[in-house]
Design goal:
Blueprint lengths: L1 E7 L5 H14 L4 E7 L5 H5 L3 E9 L2 E2 L1 H8 L9 E8 L7 H14 L3 E2 L15 E4 L4 H22 L2
Parallel strand pairs: 1-2, 1-3, 3-5, 5-6, 5-7
Antiparallel strand pairs: 3-4
Helix pairs in contact: 1-5
This protein binds flavin mononucleotide.
Length: 163
């Protein structure tokens, strides 16, 4: 059984909804246990024992929210050696900054010694790039990408860490 933790920051619910969809995607892969946690209310025992940690937050001023930056600066949970992935919400598609938010999340995860993955364009449609991005509440293609990210990370966690 591989274990996935989705950690999110959300004020108005859009990123939280993305986290729920990523969780659904991860749980659809056999042999996967997955839970989600607000960045302000973490279960460190669960996260310490997870094989993969997926981080997501809203875009604030073209980058990650300060609440998620605070977590990355002082996670208080074990991240090293785990599989990592990113997702981000924004208000303005095509320029709101969510890609940059994801890359900043990825940079932080790399510094913490994580192994970063999204599946990219190798796992069929809907294609992912740096992770899953949504404009406002995830619907349609944005929702499908969240489900896909959860599936891709759960499948890769089983491949790397065993069943
Ligand atoms: C302080 C602040 C800064 C924001 N900056 C941006 C931004 O640079 N680009 C953008 O597209 N949306 C921006 N937004 C909008 C949020 O990223 C967007 O509404 C997001 O979906 C909120 O996620 P949540 O519902 O999980 O809190 C900003 C919102 C706030 C509160």
């Amino acid at each position: 059984m591989s274990r996935i933790a989705v950690i999110y920051h959300s004020e108005t619910g859009n990123t939280r909804r993305m986290a729920e969809l990523i969780l659904d995607g991860a749980r659809s892969i056999e042999g996967t246990e997955a839970e989600m946690f607000s960045v302000e209310d973490l279960d460190s025992d669960y996260i310490d024992s997870a094989d993969a940690v997926i981080l997501g937050c809203p875009t604030y001023e073209g980058s990650l929210s300060w609440q998620m930056k605070r977590f990355l600066d002082s996670p208080g949970v074990k991240l090293a050696g785990k599989l990592g992935a990113a997702f981000a919400s924004q208000n303005w598609p095509g320029g709101g900054g969510a890609d940059f938010t994801e890359m900043t999340l990825i940079a932080g995860m790399l510094v913490h010694g994580m192994l970063i993955y999204s599946g990219g364009i190798t796992q069929g449609e809907p294609y992912l790039h740096f992770g899953a991005v949504s404009a406002r509440s995830p619907e349609g293609i944005y929702a499908q990408r969240c489900l896909k990210l959860g599936q891709n990370i759960a499948s890769k966690a089983r491949e790397i860490f065993g069943e």
